Amino acid sequence: MLRIAHDATYIHSLREGHRFPMLKYELIPAQLLHEGLVSSANFFEPELAKIADILLVHDKDYVQSLLDLTLDARMVRRIGFPLSKELVERELCITEGTIQTSIFALEYGVAFNTAGGTHHAGRHFGEGFCLLNDQAVAAAYLIDRKLAQRILIIDLDVHQGNGTAHIFEKQQQVFTFSMHGEKNFPFIKETSDLDVPLDDGIQDDEYLQLLDRHLALVFDRARPDFVFYQAGVDVLATDKLGKLKLSEEGCRQRDERVFQICRSRNIPVQVSMGGGYSVQIKDIVNAHVNTYKTAIQVFDL
């Protein structure tokens, strides 16, 4: 059974209060239901993550400043969102959704969070619309509970997973792999266990060849028993921030390669959706929905 974390409560609150670009998080579940890919029974509403779990990867003082709404103005600007109670609660909700879908993935092979992929948040900082790093927290949770021993984080968002690399730079049980635009945000990169920087304008064939080569390498090096996949669709040619030139089909084949190698090696995978900034919302939603379709096909769900 495909399990999907989704909670619209905070999305509606944030859209009304701050006019954030949250529309895709409503449209993805609606489109999945419209196409008959899932039913309402596939969705669940996560609660707020426990602070003890957040502190497995994030600095105590930083987390307390978030909770107290006392972050300094420079950090708030670095994050890019006005700081509010609703925003912090949404991040806690997203993070718990990723923790719970990682547990479901252990049972069903794959599970999704309709949000998440907040990979710019490091140990003691937020950045790029990311306050807490949902997949990093969930990875540490699995290790702490002895539910996984070796984890691979595959980050194929157009932006480097700098926060994830920062958090796990000295953690031998977590292997971080980021394939991203070399000249894109963040402009000061962290060092992942494996980084594959991409030239602007790269198209499907070259991208997929690079991915094939490096996926096999990271699985052999990391020897994971669990995978987290950050599946941002800002690699699309239509994306206004991405600078790459992948087609919708190229993006789908990217997802297929990740899911196929996980399925062939019997390794569960949790998926968070990451970025997507195409001018037309339909391009974002269709690409994200393709990720779900592909997982359903590969894992025979």
From TrEMBL:
<keyword id="KW-0378">Hydrolase</keyword>
<dbReference type="GO" id="GO:0040029">
    <property type="term" value="P:epigenetic regulation of gene expression"/>
</dbReference>
<dbReference type="InterPro" id="IPR023696">
    <property type="entry name" value="Ureohydrolase_dom_sf"/>
</dbReference>
<dbReference type="InterPro" id="IPR000286">
    <property type="entry name" value="HDACs"/>
</dbReference>
<protein>
    <submittedName>
        <fullName>Histone deacetylase</fullName>
    </submittedName>
</protein>
<dbReference type="Pfam" id="PF00850">
    <property type="entry name" value="Hist_deacetyl"/>
</dbReference>
<comment type="similarity">
    <text>Belongs to the histone deacetylase family.</text>
</comment>
<dbReference type="InterPro" id="IPR023801">
    <property type="entry name" value="His_deacetylse_dom"/>
</dbReference>
<dbReference type="InterPro" id="IPR037138">
    <property type="entry name" value="His_deacetylse_dom_sf"/>
</dbReference>
<dbReference type="GO" id="GO:0004407">
    <property type="term" value="F:histone deacetylase activity"/>
</dbReference>
<dbReference type="GO" id="GO:0016787">
    <property type="term" value="F:hydrolase activity"/>
</dbReference>
<feature type="domain" description="Histone deacetylase">
    <location>
        <begin position="21"/>
        <end position="290"/>
    </location>
</feature>
<dbReference type="InterPro" id="IPR044150">
    <property type="entry name" value="HDAC_classIV"/>
</dbReference>
